[in-house]
Amino acid sequence: MIFKKNAEIVAIGAYLPEDKLTNDDLSKIVETNDEWIYTRTGIKERRISKKTEFSSDMAIKAVQNLLDNNQVSIDDVDMIMVSTITQDYYTPSVSALVQSYFNIPSTGSLDFNAACSGYVYGVQMAFSLIASGQYKKVLLITADTLSKIVDYKDRATCVLFGDAATATIIQRNDELNDQVYSFSGTNGTLGKELFCSNVSDYINGAEIESKHVLNQNGRALYAYVTRDISEMVVNYLKENNISQDSIKWFVPHSANERMITKLCEHIGIPDEKSLLSIRMCGNTSSNSIPMALWLAMKEGKIQRGDKLFLLGFGGGFTYAGLIFDF
Description:
The chain has helices spanning about 25, 35-40, 55-70, 95-100, 120-130, 155-160, 220-240, 255-265, 280, 290-300; strands spanning about 1-5, 5-15, 20, 45-50, 80-85, 110, 135-145, 165-170, 180-185, 195, 200-205, 205, 215, 250, 305-315, 320-325. By secondary structure, the chain is of the alpha+beta class. The chain folds into two domains: about 1-170, Thiolase/Chalcone synthase (Peroxisomal Thiolase, Chain A, domain 1); about 180-325, Peroxisomal Thiolase, Chain A, domain 1.
């Protein structure tokens, strides 16, 4: 889909828990070591929420970081959207808890679950809601306490995931008239390759052995992303006459550094153009893309007018992409 953009990302805030879990720490829990983890994933450490710290707490801290470091207000936000797979409760939603804490007077609120694609889906929805004329300002939050659903006896998953939250203000700007390239898709047959049980203990008719913790078939997902997703992206760029050279920054989901290197190679985007957050944060699900943006903005890498390519992919199996001028 191609449409005219009349909204922009105004500012991003973020929060990382204080407690760090390094590769050396993990070597005391499971049979692994720093070299094994780093060479296979690109991860050095990840942040872990405290026992009494939940997704809403981290979301609130990310919003506070946004307010403390940018000249923005959230009093006039029309909609709060939260991407999370680790809600504090079935209900109320994390977004409603954020509204209550900041006492935002007149706003809608919703949580949604697209796992690692969540931020891109969220920006797509925010751009669309603003383009429709229904809203002028959206607060998009990502927040996950993945450490609370990780099995620390499972080396295949416990080395990967970390906790984080981000907050993004997306606001109407009628002076903009840029084109946005947007796509999304789903392959639900891969749901059995990355899942965490909830009220059901079965998936695809089979009983789940490791319940209420993340289960992942890393090899299957690596193959799908580097083969199928990369082919889809190459075809999309070709069909829409978008040259790889025109993309200033490629911001994929920080799932695995080795995977991203292979993905860049297949798509034809130099690896040095990719912005990641995985090394010091681990895989933080839908937080990974906005966290990479936040870190790059702090370092002065991203400038207004830069063409960004955001690419989310993960649990579901879902994927979503956005190409736009920042």
